[in-house]
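Message: I would value a second opinion on how I read folds in token form. Give me a protein, with the fold worked out from its sequence. Write it directly below this note and I will take it from there.
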Amino acid sequence: MQTGGVTASRVGLGPAAALFRSLGDPARLAIVRRLAGGEARVTDLTSELGLAQSTVSKHLACLRDCALVNVRVAGRASVYSLAQPALLDLFTAAEEVLAATGSAVALCPAYGQPR
């Protein structure tokens, strides 16, 4: 059973948790990082990131559903761009935390890299 204080401190954190889950896949992070450099088509992303077209499309759909990327039609192609430039600040902050902790999260038994 949770105390009132603990429950109150969790109020409103659901959207933030969902944001971090939406970015919690290495392929999605790679796509967002690439889009930070400018617009790209699915074919650009597949060749640059070495991912299958179906994988890129699936992750772009997730990011689009989360309103993190935009898509526009250009002829027969769909062109994707970063919808939330503030993600760049989030990535910068994450890099600072990782540097400050010596990337300890990578060793975390629950969330780190498999050994």
Q: What stands out?
A: The longest strand covers residues 69-74.
